[in-house]
Amino acid sequence: MDSQSVGRPGDTSIVVIVLETDEVYIIASLSTRNDTQVIYVDPTTGNLCHTAKKGHDLFVSESEALNHITDGSRWLCKSTTHARAIMGYAALGNTGMLLLATKVTATIPNMPGGGCVYTVSDSEWIKFQLQNAYLQGKGELKNIQELAELDIDGKYYFSETRDITRPFPSKYSVQSPDLEFVWNTWLSLPFKNIGLPQHCVVLLQGFAESRSFGVSNQRELTVALTARRSKLHPGTRYLARGLNACFSTGNEVECEQLVWVSRNAGQNVPFSRYIWRRGTIPIWWGAELKMTAAEAEIYVDSRNPYRGSLQYYQRLSQRYGSKNLDTAVNISQKKTIVPIVCVNLLRSGEGKPESILVQHFEESLNHIRSTGKLPYTRIHLINYDWHASVKYKGEQQTIEGLWKLLKGPTAAVGLYEGMYVSSLRQGEGYQGAVIRCEDSPGAFSLSSFQNGVIRYNCADSLDRTNAASYFGALQVLVEQCRRLGHSLDFSGSLDFQLGNRFSSQGNSGAYAGPLPPGWEKRSDAVTGKTYYIDHNTRRTTWEHPCPDKPWKWFDMTFEEFKRSTLLSPITLLADLFLLAGDIHATLYTGSKAMHSHILHIFTEDSGKFKQFSVAQNVKITLQRRYQNVIVDSSRQKHFEMFLGMRLFKHLPSVLRHPLKVSSRSPACILKPIVNMFPGANDGADLLSFRKKDLIWVCPPAADIIEVFIFLQEPCHVCQLLLTISHGADSSSYPALVDVRTGCSLDKLKLVLEGVTIPQCPNRTNMVIPLTGAIDSADMAVTGAGARLQSQEKPSTSLLYGFEELEGELDFLTRVVALTFCPVSPGRIPLTLGEIEVLGVALPWKDIFAKKGPYLKFLELEDKSQNSTNPFLSGSDIIVSDTSSSKQNSSVLSSTSVSLPHGLDLLTGDFVYSQPSPEPEVQEVTHEVGSGGLLDFFLDGTNEEKHPEQQCRLSSSQVATSENETARKHYLSYVRKLCGPDMARKPDFLQAMKLEIERFLLNLSAAERDRALLSIGVDPAMLDPNRLISLSYIGRLCKAANNLALLGHTVFEDKIVASIGLETQEDSTVDFWNIARIGEYCVSSGCEVHFDAQDHLRPSELPFSGSTAILTCSICQKNVCKVCTAGRGSTLLVNRNQSGPTQSNGLSSPGGSSHGGSSHGGQSDGSMISRAPILDGILCKSCCPDIVLDALVVDYVRVLGSLRRRSRADNAAMQALSRVLDACVGGHSFGIKHELGHQQGAEVSRMQLKNLLNQEESLAEFPSAGFLYSVETADGSAPALSLLLPLDAGAAGSYWRAPSDSTNVELAIVLGTLSIVSGIILLVSSCGYSTFDIPIVQVWASNKVSKEERSYLGKWDMGSMVSASSELYGPESSNVQKELPRHVRFTFRNPVQCRIIWLLLSLHPPSSSSVILEKGFGELSLQGTMMPSRRNSFGGSAQHTPCVHARRILVTGTPVKSDSTREASFHNSDKINQRAWLERPPQLGRFKVPVEAERLADNDCILEQYLSPSSPGVAGFRIDALNVIRPRVFHSPTPLDMDASDQPLTYIEDRHMSSAVLFIQVSVLQDQSGEVIVGEYRLPELRAGTPMYFDFPRPIQAQRITFRLLGDVAAFADDPAEQDDSGFGAFPLASGLSLNNRIKMYYYADPYELGKWASLSAV
Ligand SMILES: [Zn+2]
Ligand SMILES: [Zn+2]
Q1: N or C: which end of the chain has fewer CB within 10 A?
Q2: For 373-413, what is each residue's pLDDT tens digit?
Q3: For the CA atoms of 179, 182, 186, 190, what is the dihedral angle to 10 degrees?
Q4: Which of 491-505, 1241-1255, 1281-1295 has the lowest mean pLDDT?
């Protein structure tokens, strides 16, 4: 190995520290920067955190950072890992995984133009447990474990400074690589998301190494061999062969041979580069390995084996066509033909299994030619049966034969040659194209180009491919050296003489071949004799530097070549190929390359190698067999997980966007919490992860404990995470909790009431999911709320949430109030542990900076503002046929913008808004689709057609009336289906279609139910869940779930397939193609007429649908769009057709062994792993009913998800409008600045700096906020705008109080505990008058209690500023001042506090100051003030003065590390506390014997029968269920974009509709019949954790019944434990079974029970 020493000064250094507290810090000092960043891993969620604040996580040096983290080694390190690079990170549920390169080797040092390629020689995964209580199954945990087993060392490489994913030299920066060759795109995302993309290297798989050699004592040459493995078809030998849905082949590699002349720094570096490609045959084929047969059976897809071949060559043509170099102007714009030469080394002899592939290969090329779709690409196929040739002609002749075939193509394709010029000025003097690379100081001057590519293949693209490409490449190497002026020819001297002879004959016969880069040919002015100048070395010579004929070595025989060529470079190249071959073989087959002795053929002792290799080959054959049969599928899984593919299958519960912990410091506790022991702090410890072992003991007198948390930033709260904490007695932890949330202390809303907290072991992490507050009116009519009240038998919405209750979404939630109640008040002290609140925050930083995808989002929203303003309405639900499309259009268009090529990846449809038909004016009609149902949110054109909606003034009224219209529409649909008197009961499909209309009308379930109840219809009658049999629901759910997974598979493939291609598909049929109510077939051209009959008379329905006629791929009939099944149907139909026995049916070549051969889930696994391309369509007659139904179910699920998404987006926009000024100057959010934003920000920064005068601004939103809501006048800027950064918000806007309030109190919670020195009030643009200049009074405090605040002073601004009139009157606009108009209040002594109270009051009208200055005041009021104030108040005649201001700045310095004000316990206290905590409970829990038990209702009901003599039951124990919540529940929506496109906020479905399970307990006593004792909400806990629920009082009963209720359908089994036996009877997860999960107990004194007690403890 050409290794360089590791750890040079200036190298990247990564240190990962795990503290004793289990906190993880990544300390990165990059070679490309000269500072050090610290990335903190959130210990609960695993999110990476970096704020780029100096002294906090940005440091001058590594040692400074280390010192900060360990706080001068006060915090001990559990482990420290040093590394050279970060390769990736992922937070996977409960586990964080960080991949480090601990040792790297500089395998290509000093590339021309600088930069180094490092190969990872040692790697390490750092794994750590996260604190969230994720429901994760064993299978998932196993998969996470296995991800770490992926073999990295020696097979991955990277460059920190140069883009090496494209052929050398790339003009792109290292940060914009070609994704086809980047293997850690997914693993590097977390770093991109925190704005540190360069901290994770761009990782390539394959081989990169270089060798230097000298030629006859001349300067040294270096040859570098780089092999980039494509990630488009990753995987192992038997699972990744031929083409896949991403148009790529298995074992696909791009190889690059770069030769350059080593020069001193600053000198020009001539280089020559040659590219070739290798991979398996680009058609759909596979091989089935049979345990019994010796050779694998090869098969080719019988249906359409050449689909995707075209795109494959298209991609090659784009990459290797010289016209596509995007280099420079000098290359002609003319279309040149790109040759692609395939060298096929397969056995073509009769009867050989591979010969079928040879035939198909040829056929595939004919097929492509026949399409005429690649007019500028010529594909040639050279068949060369390598094995046969070696067998019959011997190795030497085989090589010679290859050379003969390769000469023409190689010369035609040519070399890419040029020179690196270190300074640009020099570069300008050279001819040809110039490439300037972003990451290199100089430029590349190019003299010739490679056009096209040679592609080698054998069956596996392994041994034969490696050998043949070596013999091709060595010819190129010799030519490359020659052209660089370093002939490898032994007989060179002879040739030179020859050249001289020619030249002495008057130059006539002089060989006029091309000169090496940097050379020039001139003629002697006197003799006319030609001479040559080497500008590189500034020497001249008479001799042509490379006199030979190009490519002459190709014509030699093997012996001639060996005799006449300098062999040492050839041997070096052989070494490189041997190493590379082993890498490719190992990655593909798990074993080294075979048959590689032929690479030693030029070495003298090649015979020895041959002997050796026979034994070697046998061994490798055996190894491969083992690998391929046993571990291929698991290695396949490793690759997929590494790439972030198919995670919905491998890690189904893992969220894409974990929540954020918002309750950590600098969040604070607003009201002190008492502790039994003095010396404890006020409760801040309860929020600190570092105190996670804390047991907070409240005095026994406390009936309840109230915890008020002020979050570190506003967010939508989704989860409460409690750490159960108690002493020996588990009953000291509270038994109930109420949760209230709000944007301020006076706006709290009850979110959860009386949620039971079971007793659990110490340190249990328990998640209580929270939705926003649910409207009690909604609760009354629908959902679990309504159902649980009644005694009717609960039904579960198994297909989808028919009764979904929607909680309010509020991204400005700031205060969370928890009320804990003890088991038995006053009996024992209460204990508490760490409390965490998790939520989703808006990206305020980016919003204020007006950058990133948020700007795009805002701009789109801004445009839509021109017609409507959805967030102005009081409700987040705006309903009408058209407004629903508007609401969604903004959502969709924001994401569709970044879609590759504007394609809906799922359907192939263009998602740019299509011209849609005129909306119908009739009451209940709608346009019949132009491009599928999802049109409803695609069209952005409708809105212009409703001018009456463009100016909504009182929007809440309008919303109500729109809502009313939507309801009417909905009800008329109901009447159409059920008849005017509701006589007809709708069938399942009709009920589903009603639901589709409901979603399209954007009605919530509660609104629907209210509408139905208003006409006396029981909503349950229209519940599709109740309209089909339970067993059919079971099968249907399975089918729909499979469809969802297949849909995601196809979707992922589409994203990957779009890499490097500009594909355009079109289709009129989308994934679902659901006909709406009243849409039916009337087309005369249709031969299917599936939906022809309807309850509606044809005359009622104008049919305006698409007249496109398609052909069914099964019955070949003509079919109209309405009678066509959605494209998704082909997925399910294919799946059913190719069972495990039918793998040759070939919907998924080679895939049948995937999914783990250990169990029988082959068909399932293979389909998910390698779904077919969505091609062909089915008519509804040929499509099984269950598939059609599954499509409808999936579609409704998708619509539900889209509704949630649009609700989230509306909530986000509402939050923005409550912070930023929404309506000043017609610009929402002030996006459009008069100045460029950059300039405006610059001015604001300068102003802020001048204002602060070395201090910090302590009260800036979003870290600061108001404790109480602030009175605000109508039409004013929102109160929070007072705290915004200076440059945020609309220019000229300001906040003002209602005119009737003369006193306004503002309680500002600072971003962190601070020492405050003063306050600055920025004056509104309207300026002050004598009447509204306020008196300011200030207090400071740490807690909310007003009594404890300290008075800091009173300032009468009127008297302060009377001398200067600068603050009076309106501001002259557009003047960029060094300081904005302001008043400063400086405190006599700085004060340490968290809350600043500000009272702004107006002078009472009769006060003396007003009288004194009346004259002036009246003058200004009459003169300048009135008109301007009119203007600024929007024309309202507003005479009364009011309190107003533009901004409030609080200045001072934050207190460093306030988090750990140590609780100063006295020793005696500690001992007391421990003694108290360790006191065991007096009573123990003992098992109540059960006489008999019975399970019912799919194990969701457990009945336990007790004997009359048994003790009273005090409670029951249940172990946490072993289920997961899968992330994928429906096929992807157009909004499910890849992570590179960011919506305004990430909030996953599951956090908006939280699935909650309840255990309902009822007892059968003697006479009274069955009585419900209680309902116990089950929190989320790790599987198997015991939970103890005490009953209110002991129960004596004959029978106790436990029922599992709630959203059971939202849970699934762990993939490893899933029953793959096909379409089972019931859709529920088996992990929900109550079998053996519940034990009843009673309390007794263990001493009294004696020895027997230990046996029956529960
Ligand atoms: Zn039809
Ligand atoms: Zn058909």
Answers
A1: N
A2: 888 899 999 999 999 999 999 889 999 999 999 999 999 99
A3: -100
A4: 491-505
Instruction: Name the CA dihedral angle for 172, 174, 176, 182, rounded to a multiple of 10 degrees.
Output: 120
Q: 137 and 1583 in contact (C-beta within 8 Å)?
A: yes
What are the tokens at 986? Answer: 């709708």
**Shortest-distance ligand to the CA of residue 1090:** 1
- 125 bridge partner residues: 99
DSSP string, 417-432: EEEEESSHHHHHTS-S
> Quick check: helix, strand or coil at residue 1598?
coil
Q: Of the bound ligands, which one is closest to the alpha carbon of residue 1117? A: 2
- In angstroms, what CA-CA distances link 899 with 28, 183, 1538, 1549? 33, 21, 9, 22
Phi, psi values for residue 1428, rounded to 5°: -65, -40
Share of the chain above pLDDT 70, in %: 77
Please provide residue 1386's backbone torsions phi and psi, each rounded to the nearest 5 degrees: -100, 135
Say what the pTM is: 0.85
**DSSP at 249:** B
291 φ, ψ to 5°? -60, -30
How many Å apart are CA 782 and CA 1008, to the nearest integer? 9
On average, the pLDDT of the chain sits at: 78
* Backbone φ, ψ for residue 348 (5° rounding): -110, 0
Report the alpha-carbon distance of residue 296 to residue 287 in Å, rounded. 6
pLDDT tens figures, 971-980:
999 998 888 8
Measured at the CA of 1441, the angle between CA 1435 and CA 1447, to 5 degrees, comes to 85
The most distant pair of C-alpha atoms in the chain lies apart, rounded to whole Å, by: 130
Q: Which ligand is nearest to the CA of 1103?
A: 1
Q: How far is the C-alpha of 1650 from the C-alpha of 481, rounded, in Å?
A: 93
Alpha-carbon gap, residue 773 to 702, rounded angstroms: 27
Q: Which residues contact 1328 (CB under 8 A, 6 or more apart)?
A: 1357, 1361, 1367, 1368
Distance CA(1519)–CA(1497), nearest Å, equals: 20
Q: How far is the CA of 908 from the centre of ligand 2 (A)?
A: 22
Q: Which ligand is nearest to the CA of 1130?
A: 2
> What is the DSSP pairing of strand 749-756 with strand 1118-1120?
unpaired
DSSP output for 1365-1390: GGGBSPPPTT---SS-SEEEEEEEEE
Ligand nearest to the CA of 1125: 2
| C-alpha span between 1356 and 1345 (Å, rounded) | 26
Residue type, position 659, single letter: L
The bound ligand whose nearest atom lies closest to the alpha carbon of 1181 is: 2
CA distance 1409 to 1401: 14
User: Residue 943 C-alpha to ligand 1 middle, in angstroms?
Assistant: 32
d(CA 1307, CA 1450): 12
For residue 1075, give the ligand nearest its CA: 1
| pLDDT surpassing 90 at residue 1286 | no
Q: Ligand 2 centre from 1181 Cα, in Å?
A: 6
Looking up tokens 């500072």 gives 35
Tokens representing 16 are 């990962």
Cα angle 316, 322, 326 (rounded to 5 degrees) comes to 100
Beta carbons of 39 and 199 less than 8 angstroms apart: yes
What secondary structure does DSSP assign to 1288-1330, as a single string?
SS-TT--EE--TT-SEEEEEEEEEEEEEEEEEEEEPPTT-B-T
Residues within 5 A (CB) of ion ligand 1: 1081, 1086, 1088, 1120, 1123
pLDDT digits (tens, 9 = 90+) for 543-585: 776 666 788 889 889 988 888 888 888 999 999 999 999 999 8
Ligand 2 centroid – CA 1111 distance (Å): 8
